[in-house]
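Notes on consecutive records. When two proteins share a document, each keeps its own sequence and its own token line. Never mix them. Below: protein one.
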Amino acid sequence: MAARSTQVKNGEIQMLLLKAAVAADLVITAFTGAALAQSKPPEIKIGITTFLSGPASVFGVPAKAAAEMIAEDLNKKGGIGGVPVKLSFIDEGAGGEALVSNYRRMVQDEKVDVTFASISSGSCNQLVPVAEDLKVMNFMWDCGAASILETKKYRYNFRTQANGTPEMLAVLVYLLKTKPDFKTIAVVNQDYAWGRESWEIFSTALKALKPDVQVLAELFPKFGAPDYSTEVSRLLALRPDVVLTTSWGGDLDTLVRQAGQRGLLQQSTFVLGIGESSIQRLGKDLPEGLIVGARGDHWFLHPEKKNDPAFKAFAEAFKAKTGAWPIYPVYHMAQAFTALQAAYDKAIKANGGNWPTREQVVDATSGTEFATGFGRPVTLRPEDNQGLEAQLVGVTKSFPGYDFKLLDNMMIFDPKVITNPAGVRSVEWLKTLKPEFVKMDVPTFKQ
């Protein structure tokens, strides 16, 4: 009996100990969960690649100024989810090898939470697989090569704006609507990923929509070329009805000035596929009648936004800071920040109001729709992480009070109509278009 009594007491003691352990574990779990729920990082670190040197810096430096301005304003309002943001920058102008090395250092040593990379499609081609390998969320905030997201599905890479397909197709449809009778065309593009791919997109669509047009010349001067006399001479001799260039930054400025000095801009209809960012810099060197694309619906006098107080305040603040009105890389930078905030807000909500993990933020980013207030809303398509962004195209015209040309007869294209479906290569989709595609209804706005 004594032995049995001892066994009972031992069993009771073990049961009491077990209950105590379970209770303690619950308390610890509850305490840890509460601590984790309240645990926010001291800051969200954002690493940004942009051109800070070289000819493309005329494009990249304004983007840096915009990032600093947006971050400062964001932090004044409490940051993202109550956490301030901190920026660090890498110069894309340093070259490919240095870019990759600096990017790895920024992610691994500075431990940034997200990167915005890059401007150049060549840079994006280098950094997208690196971001995937390092498992860091990356927003391709400006590069346009469509193939990057068409050849592989990525988890950590998102494009927060359109790619070259809707950008080139919008410009081509505008050309066909406003100058339908041209018979010949030539192209002068930078010799790298964007220049080659944007022409492939444009020329493929042109063959589908107006197959009788003859291509007289395909000219690809090197990126950063200081002299276009050979190309200008060739085009003056060939006399194409239309000359297309999708060059940008300092390269585009140089090409336009040299072409204008020798009368080429008056001889042929010039189409600056993504020329909006050069309008202010070129000033009086840019004549009337040139067709200009804005790489999105980006224009400091956006016909649907120009009277909005917040839109006007941002444009005026940027001009006060930099001396120039915002250009499309400025608005693309704003889109990256807005997409990031939308992703964090969505992830926090999905996490019951608690601070999310990085993987939860990545999950939330896919499929996000966001509105910057500077143009129409953008959606990050969940099938391929590609941004769907409206496209604005117009023609240059002089207006009183401005020492540079403005855009007139602007059309804004619906991205769902001019973007290839997910899972279908751009070039293959463009081949299926019919001439009737040009008859699409597009709203037109006078300046």
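Protein two starts on the next line and is unrelated to protein one.
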Amino acid sequence: MVVDVADDPIGTPSVYLGADPRRPYVSIGLPQGIRRWEFMLHDDEPTALCDDPAFMRALLARHVPDPAALHVINQRTFTHHGRVASEFRKGRVFLAGDAAHLMPVWLGQGWNSGIRDATNLAWKLSAVLAGEATDALLDTYTVERRKHASDMIDVNMAAGTVMKMGRLGGAVRDVAASALNLVPKWKSYFTELRFKPMPRYAAGVVVDQTTLVPGRARPGLKATRRSKGVAALAPFTDSAGAVSPVGLQFIQPRVNTADATNVLLDEVTGDWWTLATWGTDPTAYLDEVALALVGRHRVRLVSFMPETQRDWAERQYASAPVPVTVVGDTTGALKDWFDLRACGLVLLRPDHFVAAACLTRQASRALAALREAASLTTGPAAEQAPHPLEGASA
């Protein structure tokens, strides 16, 4: 049962998740001075109780001094669902947000998951409608988003089970929670929701780091039969980190460029493809075919540098065949990122996930593999035929 009240009678900005074994509840301070409560209805309590003022006041009596004086603006019931569509695309129809997946409110991830759907789908539709990719790119939407949405639903359902434990289970849970409070590191792991699954694309618009095979990306760097020769390279075996960054979001520290100071990296790389190297000129590793692909698909070339070397690099790369944006690493975050990973070059997707990561000398191969994984078209844009999705409405 949900109750929305104007003129918040509590006034704190906090969100309370009350794991009361008698009746779990949520209390949330919303914008415009609204306070929301959500109370679990027991199996023997009909939804018609939602319209009973006495029942509602009894629920609120433990939360506010005078429930009868509250300005109730909305009350209703709803059911916590955990559902996910089998496909997020069928022809010209795409599902996103609540149309694609439903999850309980316990961890507040329903809206976040919808935003992730939108950012994944938007750039792919843009690429297809602009003639820069074929229709096959849109099939990666389900491949990339469904698993993470499903994993998030599982975590939300598990959180609900913990919240709704009875007296005995609740007592055990509360003792465990009290023990966690004694260890700040463990406490922050749960209070900051660090246990929730982060999106990682193991299939779709990704390139495996060790094999440079398009369409799939294993998280580890261990050798396989197909990658035996490649994985024997020292950077793969001796790297401080044994996990590939492919399929994960890239970091976003504050950086400097010739045109801007102390800006977020996303503001520099923009909203399309980026090819970035650490400490070197990226054009030095691209053959003619790769340079043509860079021009065709508006790939921004970036060189990450220690801030102390930025001026030198800007002068050095001024005569590069393709413009290179030099980014000054003012915080050391970019250097630390590359220090822990067996790569000197990354290809970033328009949604800022790592599509490919490799050694600098593998740049052209990685770009060719990315072209295949993303179903990118070749040749000048003017030569591309009109796409069947052109003119479609959302």
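For the record: The longest strand covers residues 300-306.
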